[in-house]
Amino acid sequence: MLLALLSNRRSFAALTAPTCSTKCLRIVERFPPFCNAIIRATIEKGSPTKALLAFEFLHSSGALRPDHRTIALLLKASSISPHLYNVSELHVLIIKLGLQWHSSLSSSLFRLYLSRNLLKHALQLLDDIFVQDTDPFYGNLLITSFSRKEDVESSYMVFKKMPVRDKISWNSMITAAVRSSRPKEALSLYRRMIVAGVEPDCFSFSTVLSACARAGALCHGERIHRLMTEKEAGFESNPFLCSALIDMYSKCGRVDLARSIFDSVNRITNSISIWNSMITGLAIHGLGADALQTFDNMPKHAIFPDKVTFVGILTACSHSGMVDEARFYFNSMQRDFSIKPQLEHYGAMVDALARAGQLSDAYELIKEMPIEPDSAIWRALLGACRRHSRWDVAEMAMGEMRRCHSGDYVLLSNIYSSAKRWEKAEGVWRVMKERGVRKSKALSWVEMDGRVQQFMAGDRSHRNSDEIYRVLGELTRRAKAEGYVPVTEVTTKDVSDEEKEETLSSHSEKLAVAYCVMRNGAEGIHEIRVSKNLQTCWDCHGWMKAVCKVLGRVITVRDRIRFHRFQNGECSCRDYW
């Protein structure tokens, strides 16, 4: 009778009516296992929501004394029900019944929390699960889930709780660090993994190579390359590893080694990902002609470009001032390859036009876009306004951005300062203060003796700070003798030139170069490699050109946008950046 009443909504409503409920409850009281049968049958009939309603009715009436079988059925119903059921209430019920030590219930509840994206609740269950089962499976699942949300702190919390860690645990944690832009922590985790005796696999290598690329840690990357050669016989046939290697060497300033690997593995592994990595590597080094030549060679190897390829090609054109070529490839995408331009393609095309001073054409392209432009596209236009001294266009671009970063405000202020519109420049900083926007810290880092040393603008926290500043002062004195003149227009305050010069003198990349010279001496290093989280300023660019000539050494700076290779008083960007 009870099963029949549960078969439709009206019958279930009738079940709760006073005239019917008493008779049904007597049946349940005489046969307690019948409750579980009711819930199971309702689930099997494809009505998990009704099963949950039946439980609520039976439990609230006092007719049902749930056991672990009941809870297991409820968890199953909740996992497949399209309606959001309060999982926390089930969790509380499990604790009240003293069933939290039942392994199958804990694991089912854990999966249910994950499926509902209730990660913090799942985290609370881990201790109970690990008491009964040390299998790292549950911890690995939660680390990956937190990693997708870029919540690396919670990932670490899970990792520390795990009594047993396997290869997946370490790989997941390294991935979490890389996704959260913490490459130094990813490298540290990789070293701990090796010390723990866990053998890295292909996934380990590709992830940690990505960390090396982000950190500019060439020495680490070279060691990993050697280990790959030893451990992964025939890795040249793995397109993911080869792409990661090419990307790492390119982003660590050794595009020559990236090209060598590309040429050697391309005969073995003919994959679009390898070609994309090479084209992108050439693009960020400003080697536009080489990137286009590589693109033109693709048909000879039966490789056809995809949307990632065209992002690389358009970026290469942008960084090399090849505006006509950028137009050609942008139009060719859809005409010749049936690839519809996406936001990133429009962004690269706008950047190419704006860098070349064609701000009107860039603005018209934005207005003609069939998709709504995002902040990145307006930011490309804003960035070009500094080079071409168009504060009016900069104001318009800033006004179009839905979400402005601190760097956008700083850039607008710099544009006003270059035009000597001091009041407007100060006004930007007032707006930042009112809106609670804090300027991003300028960071530069170098790899020395296998360790990454990091510096902030005006940094005096290093134990050798006095010596670093002494070397910096000497380098600046010699640079001025070579013709360097501080570009005080990039400062945002209407103060004396001496005060402006003092502000410029301790930028983070200058400190990083001074540290390298201090450690090795002016004659002891062949090439200084510096990475920076923001775009380098005009003053630092001029300083690097003079200092590389003074030292007679190559200085390579990787900023947020591209590479600058300074040699013999010149830069590879030809002052086009």
Automatic annotation (TrEMBL):
Entry's Pfam families? DYW_deaminase, E_motif, Eplus_motif, PPR, PPR_2
A biological process term (GO) from this entry: RNA modification
**Origin superkingdom:** Eukaryota
Q: Which InterPro entries match?
A: DYW_dom, E2_motif, E_motif, PPR_At4g14850-like_plant, PPR_rpt, TPR-like_helical_dom_sf
Q: Where do the PPR repeats start and stop?
A: 166-200, 271-305
Listed A to Z, the keywords are:
Repeat
Care to name a GO molecular-function term for this sequence?
Answer: RNA binding
Which residue intervals define the domain DYW in the entry? Answer: 483-577
Q: Does the keyword Transit peptide apply?
A: no
Question: Would I find Repeat among this entry's keywords?
Answer: yes
What NCBIfam families does the database record attribute to this sequence? PPR
Entries under PANTHER family matching the protein: PENTATRICOPEPTIDE REPEAT-CONTAINING PROTEIN
List the protein's name. DYW domain-containing protein
Lineage of the species this protein comes from: Eukaryota, Viridiplantae, Streptophyta, Embryophyta, Tracheophyta
